[in-house]
Structures are given as structure tokens and as C-alpha cells.
Design a protein that fits this description.
31% helix, Aminopeptidase, 13-stranded mixed beta sheet, two-stranded antiparallel ribbon, 11 helices, alpha+beta, 29% strand, 347 residues
Length: 347
Amino acid sequence: MDYELRTFDESRDLESFVSLYNTVFGPLRPYYSWPITAERFRDKVLSHWEFRPEGFWLAFAGGELIGFLLAGFRDLPLMDRDVLSVEMSPVFLSAVGVAAGHRRRGVGRALCEKAAAFARDNGRTRLAVSANPRAPMALFIGVQEDWREAHCFFSSVGFDAAGTCQNMVRGIAGYELDEPVRQAIARLATEGCECREYRESDYPALTELLAEHDWAYWDLDMLSKVGKWTKTRPFMETCFLECATEEIYGPDEIGVVVKDGAMLSFCAQTLNPRKRMTYLGPMLTRADARNQGLGMIALQISLRQAARKGAVVCDLWTGMAGHVTHFYKKSGFRQVMRWFDYERKLR
């Protein structure tokens, strides 16, 4: 099969790329991906501070666009919060696809080799296919458990399964705090703790908490925007294309636990009013305040506020660690899907 590869040129490739992307991923909705438009792609990817044009490759046959691969990496190291090790960001494949009639002919493999060269040129030693939010400009969630074609493809081009994550949901129509949580809030009040909604005056305490826990793991723009969440496009939009497509500028609901001016725990959610859904995250409890139920309280406060604004479902993406899964199951969530991360080490 004859085909040519070259880097993306916005002036002549944007419309055809958007069309092919929507065609490739359309059959996989609603869980794998969401439709994009040229305008939103410019806003989310081409204008993104981590976009690198030399990592965006297209494949053509007879002048027709038949494949694409968008590669990128984070400038700062990523923090693995479970083992507290800091490592250089790999090159993430934020989007990769080949038109149905041109698969199994080496196009995807050739695009992956371009990504490998891009990685080596930038001193990176790994390629990764990862569920959000690790990959910058991620245009698909990741390789879902039953997406067999993708599993076969990445295995065939040298990738190994490197971990799993999950999607969990729970209904929140008419949600109110349960009696044990109300009692816990009353008890904490006698100890000087405030369990409530986020206020603008909480900004310094919240940013201090985030800085203490090195949230380079999440979107690096987060610290600068967290104090104006309802008016800007922070972490959540870079993580969920659906939010970006529908112009959702959350997070909107934030539950906090505060004591003596210090932020002990918080839980944020972004509301999708059209679908009456809320997307959970981020949330964090200070290290010396964990295992006291504070995260559960912050979570329930944010759920209550989202429900009062009309949300009937809460949706989240999270890792598969046992303690994480137990926490959310205890909070009424159930698993819907699992994703696999893939990684290829470069020589």
C-alpha cells in the first residue's frame, strides 16, 4: 500500500482531520470518545500550551487523509502519588486512528514510529497510551476493556499493558446528607472544623494544600486558576473532551473541610446541566488528616450541592487501587467500565 506521512498543517488539514476523527471514533461512543468541531479542536489542542506541531502526524493515500497520530508530553515531571517517585513524562499518544478501509496495512505502525522518533528527539524514553488526565490534550479516554481491536494494535506495535483505571457512577437525584455524616459534621464543629461549600476566601488555603501535595500530577494550569473556577477553564476541561465540546467551565460544586484557616479536605465537581450529570474530581485530603472521614464529608457536601442544581448522576474516572475502589463503593458508586494503559519503552 502506498501512503505518505507528513505533519499537520492547519490551513489545509483541519477540516479533513475533524471529519476523519469523528468517523473513526463515532462507532465507539458514548464511552470512548465524543465528537469534536474545528473550533473546539483549535481551542483545546492547537492553542494548548503543550501542543507541539512536530508531534502531530497525518497519513495520506492518493491525497486522502487516512490516519492520524497526536503525540505530546508534559514539560514537568509527573508525580506518582502512590509511591512518591518523580519521573520524566513519557510521550503520550493523545489521539491515534486509521480509517476503517486502510487498517492492517502498516499505517498505524508507521505513525507510531514517527511518535517514537519525536520522543527520542525530545529525550524521552517511553511512549504511553493513558486514560485521562495524564495525557495532555487527550482526545480519547483510553483503551477500554472490550475494545479488542485497539488492544491487538498496541500489542502488535510493541506496547505492553501498564495499568488499569475505571469509570464509576452513582445516582444523586434528590441527594441529601445522610444521618451519620450530619452527626460527623456536628462533632467536627465542636472541634473547630467547618464542613461547607467552598468560598473565594478559601483560595489561599486550597492552593497551599495543592502545593504541599505536588499537583503537577494534574493539570499544571490548575494552581493559577483554582481561585476562579466558575469563570475559567481549568483542569476539568483538559481532561474531558465532552466538557470542552459542550463549553462547560467547572468545577462548579466544591465541598471543603477547613480548620483554623487550613484546608483539610476538598472535593470538586463539574456540572453538565444539559445531561443533568456531574463529573467528580479533583479531591484531596491533607496527609495528616486522612482516615478520619473528612474526604467522605467533602464528597457528600459537593454531591448535595450538585443535586440541588438538578444533577441526577455523578460520574468519575479513577485508579483501580483497592483503597480507592473501596472508598467510592462505600460512597455508593459502582463500576461501569475499565481502561488499560499501554506503554512502550524506547531503545
